Fold:
Amino acid sequence: MSGRIFVVDDDPAMVEAVAMVLSLDGFEVDGASDSAAALRAVLRDPPALLVLDVNMPGLTGWELCEIVRRQPLTRDLPILFLTGRSEVRDRITAMQVGGTDHLTKPFRAEELRARVRALTAAAPARGEA
Amino acid sequence: MASDLFPLLVVFVAVETVISREGGRFLLVGTYAGLALLVVLSPAPTAAATRSLALRFVWPAAAALGVELASRSKAPARVFESRDVKGDRVERDDRGDRDALRDPRAEVLHDLKSPLTVLRVYSDLVAEAARRGELPSEVHLAGLAREMALMESLAGVPPRTPASVPLASGPAAPSAPPAPRSDLVRVLSTLVESYRLAHGGRMRLEFVAEGAEIPVAADPVALQRAFRNVLDNAVKYTPAGGQVRVRASVVAQHAFVVISDTGAGMTPDEQKHAFTFAWRSPSASASGVPGRGIGLGVTKELLEQNGGKISLLSEPGHGLEVTIMFPIAREAGA
Structure:
């Protein structure tokens, strides 16, 4: 499996841990802890998958997702939210802003790998959980 | 008279409905107050009074609403709702305090989910290697140790330093692990560089060290976490175009790290409470800068567990200066 994945989380330890897991499947992983810098990087060079935390300083993950969705180059980019928010309402919001999938922290490494494999293998389909 | 007022009332109700839906309560209250005042002051409303009413209150309110809606269309806002661990409803307004789950307990518990996830992910990776019959990766073990240290410090578990190893006598006594040792210059230069990559477009980040190496008897993982917390705050509270400066020096067998910023600074009262766990000043909460009041408390714990001390110096409006001090590490065998 290959492709480039961009991970955005304000905790660099989380970015590093996610990168460790996904690199096991042959993905090239870039990351950022600053959402504004991440947005610039993603729009400049869209990855195969965008992994977003929700609660971040500056732009939140939801806001970042909405902006990415409005750009022609990244309109169909699969976006996976990793968040501590687990309520149904939060999942709905994630979908409303254009998220493709939603994984609640704390998650297992295997669960993350399975979701990412599915998202990168299938054609992106917005609104599917 | 009633027929004169009817079209105006239709417009008024329509505007009111939109304002109310958009959360502009202050506009709604102001419009109502103006209308009530006009009615009280005008004993016999006439067509002229109606036009006056329209000119003075309804159309300005509609115009203000238009401006507000236009600004919102650039940055769409919604009130996101959630529930905390006890099931109480909490709200989050993505235009205001973006990060605030309003129940502080929920905030703290929410904050623990990330380190717990990292811990779980690394333990999964180590377990997976074991299932394959391989030795775990050093990188995975280091990640696991770092997150364990963080969680233990949050839980108040004493650090595993040589001093906490039980003393034993006789030939079977286990040898004490080597004292931890870190080079402040290396730790800080790496950290500042990563912050420069993330925030360098918004502010100036500078690192100056006196000497190529400043050795201290402290765990590098704890140091990194502590400095990161301080740098996080400096970057968060420094406005665009500002500066964050990190200086490392040695004075009389002590290493000093001074992290200064050009942000809003702290009042004496805020400095007094800054290290209290989960405490945030009203001004910090009102600033819209996300935070949970945990970072500095954890930093102090981590530093003190490693023989360090931390102090603050600030004047409101003139930035914050955080000074961290460590004894210089003696050479092995000295």
Chain A touches chain B through 37 residues (CB under 8 Å). Helices of chain A lie at 12-23, 35-44, 61-70, 88-96, 109-121.
